Amino acid sequence: MRYLITGGAGFVGSHLAEYLIHRGDEVVVLDNLLTGSLENIEHLHKSPGFRFVEGSVMDKNLVAEIMEKCDAVFHLAAAVGVKFVMENLVTSIEINVRGTENVLSVAAEGGKKVLITSSSEVFGKSNKASFHEEDDLIIGPPHKVRWCYATSKLLDEFLAMGYFLEKGLPVVIVRLFNVCGPRQTGRYGMVIPRFVKQALNGEPITVYGTGKQIRSFLHVKDAVVGMVGLMEEKRAEGMVFNIGNPQGITIEALAIKVKELTGSSSPIVYIPYEEVYGPHFEDLIYRVPDVNRAKAVIGFQPKYSLEDILKDTISYIKESGNPCST
Ligand SMILES: NC(=O)c1ccc[n+]([C@@H]2O[C@H](COP(=O)([O-])OP(=O)(O)OC[C@H]3O[C@@H](n4cnc5c(N)ncnc54)[C@H](O)[C@@H]3O)[C@@H](O)[C@H]2O)c1
């Protein structure tokens, strides 16, 4: 197979490209390097089946030109991360909505299957201990710009569903829940690389809010296996899937674990959300997935533990000279 991966120079996309190349597929990455980097895919250039195109999903002609020679598309290109989106509202909406529309409409012309990556953010303020794909989604009003990312991703889901129902395009919608591991940067507020870097530098480990909020973390290698499995499964078409780790942990406990595993003497400090994100910021208590649907359809089961994720991230940050700024 020859796959197009939009956003393939990013964190998840580069691992996906690596996985597909290693098993013998061909991969074309389209990325404008907004948050991705050439270093993420440097090691793939020696593979004959790999090609990188620097460009944007906003360029529909370019998307069409590349997609013509591909069999299917993993659409990951996006303005990512709540903090980044809050600081770049218009650009983020444009990329996440128009970019996705370009990918879906070009794919529909050629009948190419598309997997789109949505986010656990779409569940919004729901306070269920475990989120199911068919739950109602509770998103805040527009002056609380935290919900912009979720809204843009949710519109992507509706768009994909529309292409499936009205145009017969085979699509799969994946809601990723906190995917972590090597190459993830802390720059856009991602908690694990941020904590690890702070701990390694002996700086305070900054927990936002009370630290009692519960999150779950999935190793990027497990996420990739889940995404590829869903792409290849006919029964997944036209459906939404949670891909995450059903095992939750409080952010406070995560900070303690990072401190232990790095052997750091950093203090753990608590910072109110408003100081980090400004007024009107709303956070949620739970963000843990129910993954029974993915389990039933493709046998999805995370293989890696939180400790594996933390150890891999610590080694990566140490080996690469502590590159992710906080
Ligand atoms: N990592 C997670 O925990 C997580 C959780 C939920 C959803 N997601 C989704 O998964 C996808 C990948 O996220 P990631 O964590 O790897 O983030 P990332 O920032 O590393 O990857 C996004 C990539 O998209 C590229 N990009 C942005 N705008 C583009 C454009 N206009 N044209 C082409 N490329 C563009 C960026 O340069 C980057 O390489 C995103 O769609 C994100 O919303 C990720």
Q: What's the structural blueprint in terms of helices and strands?
A:
Layout: E1 2-6, H1 11-22, E2 26-31, E3 50-54, H2 60-67, E4 72-75, H3 82-87, H4 89-110, E5 113-119, H5 148-167, E6 171-176, E7 179-180, H6 191-200, E8 205-208, E9 214-216, E10 218-219, H7 220-231, E11 239-243, E12 248-250, H8 251-262, E13 268-271, H9 273-277, E14 286-287, H10 292-298, H11 306-319
Parallel strand pairs: 1-2, 1-4, 2-3, 4-5, 5-6, 6-11, 7-10, 8-13, 9-14
Antiparallel strand pairs: 9-12
Bound molecules: nicotinamide-adenine-dinucleotide (NAD).
Question: What can you tell me about this protein's structure?
Answer:
With 326 residues, this protein is α/β, with parallel strands linked by helices. The chain has a domain at 2-179 and 219-244 and 287-303: Rossmann fold (3-Layer(aba) Sandwich). The chain contains 11 helices and 14 strands. It has helices at residues 11-22, 60-67, 82-87, 89-110, 148-167, 191-200, 220-231, 251-262, 273-277, 292-298, 306-319, and strands at 2-6, 26-31, 50-54, 72-75, 113-119, 171-176, 179-180, 205-208, 214-216, 218-219, 239-243, 248-250, 268-271, 286-287. Strands 3-2-1-4-5-6-11 form a 7-stranded parallel β-sheet, sandwiched between helices. The chain has a 3-stranded mixed β-sheet with strand order 12-9-14. Strands 7-10 form a two-stranded parallel ribbon. α1 packs across α7 (220-231) and α2 (60-67) packs parallel to α4. The longest helix is centred in the first third of the chain and has 22 residues, at 89-110. The model has no long low-confidence stretch (mean pLDDT 94). Bound molecules: nicotinamide-adenine-dinucleotide. Residues 6-7, 9-13, 30-36, 56-58, 76-78, 80, 95, 99, 117, 119, 176, 178-179 line the site of nicotinamide-adenine-dinucleotide (NAD).
